[in-house]
Amino acid sequence: MIDELVSQQDALDAARRVRGTDDVAEALARVAWSVVTDPGDAVAATLVREFGPADGMRFALDARGRSWPMVRAAGARRALDEARARWRQRADPAAVIDALRRAQTAGAHLLLPGDPDWPLAVDDLDTEAPVVLWARGRPELLTSAARVAIVGARAATAYGERVAADLSGDLAAAGTAVVSGGAYGIDGAAHRAALTVGGGTIAVLAGGVDRPYPAGHRNLLTRIAVDGVVVSEVPCGTAPTRWRFLARNRLIAALGQATVVVEAGWRSGSLNTAGHAATLGRPLGAVPGPVTSASSAGCHRLLREYDAVCVTSAAEVAEMLPIDARSPHAHDATEEGRVLLLRALSTRTARTEAQLAQRADLTVERTRALLGLLDLDGLARRDGDGWRGIGAARTS
Amino acid sequence: MIDELVSQQDALDAARRVRGTDDVAEALARVAWSVVTDPGDAVAATLVREFGPADGMRFALDARGRSWPMVRAAGARRALDEARARWRQRADPAAVIDALRRAQTAGAHLLLPGDPDWPLAVDDLDTEAPVVLWARGRPELLTSAARVAIVGARAATAYGERVAADLSGDLAAAGTAVVSGGAYGIDGAAHRAALTVGGGTIAVLAGGVDRPYPAGHRNLLTRIAVDGVVVSEVPCGTAPTRWRFLARNRLIAALGQATVVVEAGWRSGSLNTAGHAATLGRPLGAVPGPVTSASSAGCHRLLREYDAVCVTSAAEVAEMLPIDARSPHAHDATEEGRVLLLRALSTRTARTEAQLAQRADLTVERTRALLGLLDLDGLARRDGDGWRGIGAARTS
């Protein structure tokens, strides 16, 4: 299918318009992957990683008779064969062109790994990372220095909505982007409060970014698509489904440097988001409420069973963030970050940006930016996939 | 002073009437200690432990010119000399007789270590254990198989009082004795609910058991002194003071096998009780509430800073208790306890009752009772201060 797409003028034109560049081979291949796969397809991710998006797809779809040379284990071969059967049913070049045209109509950006606005945070999902992201509004918010996911029950109480709004408003006013799912209840209260204080907010949808869902949030999502960003990994035109909501939750957890559940019933879907945050090693917070309120039972469960942090204020949420994300508006963050990063660098061993970010307790985005500064100052240099420190005084 | 007391007919009569026995030498000595010392006097406790209550007091008060033969370190000698000066100011035989007569008038029992109703749990306070206990009502409640301290703010909200009553009522109905401080607010709600379901409740006072405090709880404390037990370590007639409230809190924490704080402001006195529970290694629970309520701020602080368990129901409180205390009304507890205790016994090494209780996850009281049964069955025997298992099959 990929060779068919890159030889069709329609496909090339549609991709060029959405990407704003002539170099659209990878974009077409990745959009094709997003059309033929469901979110978080680990088999697809492995092929993309191994062969690149275009060759991986040739391998998966076009080389019908070809064997899988790198796969020897029978179980893995079976998984690949099953995946290939699924993908082939959806391998329609017209669907790729349709997705691109709908995106253009909706004014959606197509983000690929490596783009400046691609959030490195979602790569923590490893083989469940999204293959592309579609974004309406201000995609640069996806790489905000500080990002907190605030989620909770659709059937929220007045108490829950008030607390969500207080937390979100205070965090957004201090420069933290508020990530949520655009739903009724806690999600909506969090988005609205962030917009009200003129802060950044990210709505992650389970369907296409051109399909505001729920319908009652059409106006809210339209506002977010201007002053914030509405983002999804599924192509424009895709309807949200129960399964896509669950898959979407992992993106919310990955985009937030911490996740806070404000109100949740005993079996609330937001506990699923909390589970993803915990799996990713992201700090998890829960807001307590009256024990007499069923809407807080899920939060109390997180406190009892999942060792969530009890949070009652924006300041307590900020304590859960990486050090450099706690006061994103502060101007001395650069000097503090340089010191932390210099300590994290070794002159002997090259360390990747992710390793350095973890050692320095900085975001990957900030680590990357600071490494650029240290490089200019002659204090760090690239070495293969990583970085080393330079300096006679450093011996570690 | 002690020789003066045991030679005065007034003193002997007063002690005999309160104790109901002619053997009152230790009682007089311990009451004398409780009159001359403040609660939790570790220097006094050390002397009592080293020399016994009567000889310890002779040493402390009567042998004016005598040195302290067992103390060589200058710091410890100074502490002893200072303590002796304090004690001598209060060494009045008439005060001892007065305390005994007031107790008799109030119908208070005088409990000494070794009495069947003496709660071994308070001995966990080590050198801060009480030297005597005065009890009005049913002193046998002090050794209930299951005991939970439920404490909280005097300035409680309707929510807090409701939750305290729900927890206390459910626990007391299941056979757990509810320990609290008799104060307004949470304490009162906890006591009342336990009485309402016909369960056991223990009110630990900062002043004498003949001085109901606060005045507005005179009727409640009078009911507890009949259907439950009102207990204090200070002599009858003693007024409660701020310092005595703080000292009293350690007894509440020691008498409870777990402590639950229902509502507490940021600097509530119940956090002091929580601190004692944590110091004693007792499980600590906190009931969450609305983050918008200042009356829950102390509970949320316990959840955040002191690793308290988030509790929302009596069942969750019961999970914090030793295994044999979780269903005190169950009749198969004896067989289960025997099995646990047999596993905890070693045939090679003698273990104390406290060590065995900890290993078997049983209360000390139950461990002692079960050891008696195992002794009768020829499965365990005393060895010095501890117990050993007997049996060819046992090799541990």
Fold and architecture overview:
In chain A, 47% of the residues lie in helices and 11% in strands. The first copy, chain A, is α/β, with parallel strands linked by helices. The C terminus of chain A is likely disordered. Chain A has 17 helices and eleven strands. The first copy, chain A, folds into three domains: 105 residues, no CATH class; 206 residues, Rossmann fold (3-Layer(aba) Sandwich), CATH 3.40.50.450; 57 residues, Arc Repressor Mutant, subunit A, CATH 1.10.10.10. In chain A, helix 3 crosses helix 7 and helix 15 crosses helix 17. Chain A is globular. At the A-B interface, helix 8, helix 13 and strand 9 of A face helix 8, helix 13 and strand 9 of B.
Describe this protein with a few key phrases.
homodimer; alpha/beta; Rossmann fold; Arc Repressor Mutant, subunit A; nine-stranded mixed beta sheet
| Biggest β-sheet description of chain A | 9 strands, mixed
Q: Summarize the amount of helix of chain A as a percent range.
A: 40-55%
Q: Which chain pair has the greatest contact?
A: A-B, 19 and 19 residues
- Mean pLDDT across the residues of chain A is 90
CATH topology of the largest domain in chain A, which one? Rossmann fold
Second-tier CATH architecture of the largest domain in chain A? 3-Layer(aba) Sandwich
Helix vs. strand class of chain A: alpha/beta
Structure summary:
2 copies of one chain form a homodimer. Chain A is α/β, with parallel strands linked by helices.
